[in-house]
């Protein structure tokens, strides 16, 4: 800085400490409450110092929310969303930047249109689509009058009913959330900055497009892929609305949804100690990801949000 | 405050595209709102050093967003490559969106056996219903307040962390933490802190003589979700502002300092205006966050109550569609929300597309 301003610097430190406290206070009280017995947690005022029940509460929360199962579900969903989005986006970004085909701009705009329209606003129809993924085929069959055609050909009366229920399945949890354009645009932007000479050289050497993609483009994209993977993992782990609609089967619930059932309601025993232990457990994996991979995380965030 | 300081190039804060935001506006303002156009064409004032260097090789029909070195006019392979993306989009995006559009002009009973075409009656009914208008007011109040709090706190924190040297990375790491925490969990943490019976902060409020009960008092409930939503989102705004500040030209700040402007004055008169596009982008993102992602907070903490005080629009879509099974009304609400989301996206591109600067 250009000049010395000790007073201002002190104020800045005070502001930052206040900001850090703002972040830490809820986490600290979650820890305190998570380490108390149920009798202690109901005492007013809440003790400022943690008690000795921390591990026991963690175990209780683990069992009560069936975290052995729901953590597994969360991991499958988060990894599935991450891998799916990245794979699908890499391929389509490659297609729209490296090939000159007739429907290139149409494909581009189709993908672009899906940008930023969150799943929250179209939950009912999306749920229908997942409840019967064969619905589009059904409509197609109805529209083309396949049944009438069949009757005309064979003389038999048939009704075509196509059903493919994906509720309570991993694909049902994962696939609708893969439909988003941000990752495609991130890779598209990155590909546009890749030097043309690389592709020219690859073509001179007789490499096929897929070979170029696999041996040159993919290795170049590694840092972008890692950065994006972190963001998408957090996104997948923290999903709420979509898994909520799928909790008809308890075994398919994700950790965040299972945690919700630990919150004391007004008519139940106020087991906030268990709820807070569960909250700490559920936020642990994403928090570790951010702490360990902070540098990549920032790159991914800044890149993917523009 | 120097872009070439060791902090600026520290591994934690990568050089980012936000750098371009802070350039003098004449360089970056683009006239094309569409992303397809921006790639190839910049406004006349934008320098094009790279294009000037690369000779065109007899390709007058260059398409926007296409690599100069490409694999030519093949059609089979790119179609195959695009297929997974397009299939997923069609199944889970376009068809559901179309269905929402269709349902919004239909009236059907919960079992779907009796369907009637009713034109815009669903929309008319929505705007006639006091509950929906109340939900609009609540949503606007909620998102605007959340937006103002989040941005204000983030700006102050960004300014402070830009000034201090010692302990900066510790502060940053701590401020980043809420990004990892799911909105639902953030809501649960705050619900506990302000639980009228056991919550430590609620106890403090009571000790100060403030009556506080988010389970009964609509106003308290709304403030509770606003606080939780802001707490969760401050880190997001902070990251963008902090990275943007690193890119403010040091020469400009030094010149202002020589002219006698103090650090605070420099911040508000130079740095913040240069961050204008970033702030605008963040405001739009905050609106999107407030409108859609806070669903989890509402559902985990207040369930839209008490007395509909926290029944924001996206929560109402869910309740009407999945609990009350009023599909027509829910679809009409979806369509209205989609329109809003699209406007937000377009705004974002209109004012932020100049970040997309490949020099192609």
TrEMBL record, chain A:
Membrane topology term: Multi-pass membrane protein
TM spans (from-to): 12-39, 75-99, 106-124, 173-191, 212-237, 271-293
Subcellular compartments: Cell inner membrane; Cell membrane
Residues annotated as domain ABC transmembrane type-1: 71-293
Pfam families named among the record's database cross-references: BPD_transp_1
PROSITE patterns named among the record's database cross-references: ABC_TM1
Domain of life: Bacteria
The UniProt record lists the keyword Hydrolase: no
Record keywords: Cell inner membrane, Cell membrane, Membrane, Transmembrane, Transmembrane helix, Transport
Subunit-level organization: The complex is composed of two ATP-binding proteins (UgpC), two transmembrane proteins (UgpA and UgpE) and a solute-binding protein (UgpB).
Biological function: Part of the ABC transporter complex UgpBAEC involved in sn-glycerol-3-phosphate (G3P) import. Probably responsible for the translocation of the substrate across the membrane.
Family assignment from sequence similarity: Belongs to the binding-protein-dependent transport system permease family.
Protein name: sn-glycerol-3-phosphate transport system permease protein UgpE
Automatic annotation (TrEMBL), chain B:
Matching InterPro entries: MetI-like, MetI-like_sf, UgpAE/MalFG_permease
UniProt keywords, alphabetically: Cell inner membrane, Cell membrane, Membrane, Transmembrane, Transmembrane helix, Transport
SUPFAM superfamilies per record: MetI-like
Compositional bias per record (Low complexity), positions renumbered to this chain: 1-18
Transmembrane segments: 75-95, 140-161, 173-194, 267-292, 331-352
Record Gene3D superfamilies: MetI-like
Region: Disordered, residue numbers: 1-69
Membrane disposition: Multi-pass membrane protein
Origin superkingdom: Bacteria
Domain ABC transmembrane type-1: start-end pairs: 136-348
CDD domains referenced in this protein's UniProt entry, alphabetically: TM_PBP2
Compartment(s) where it occurs, according to its Swiss-Prot or TrEMBL record: Cell inner membrane; Cell membrane
Biological role: Part of the ABC transporter complex UgpBAEC involved in sn-glycerol-3-phosphate (G3P) import. Probably responsible for the translocation of the substrate across the membrane.
UniProt family annotation: Belongs to the binding-protein-dependent transport system permease family.
Protein name: sn-glycerol-3-phosphate transport system permease protein UgpA
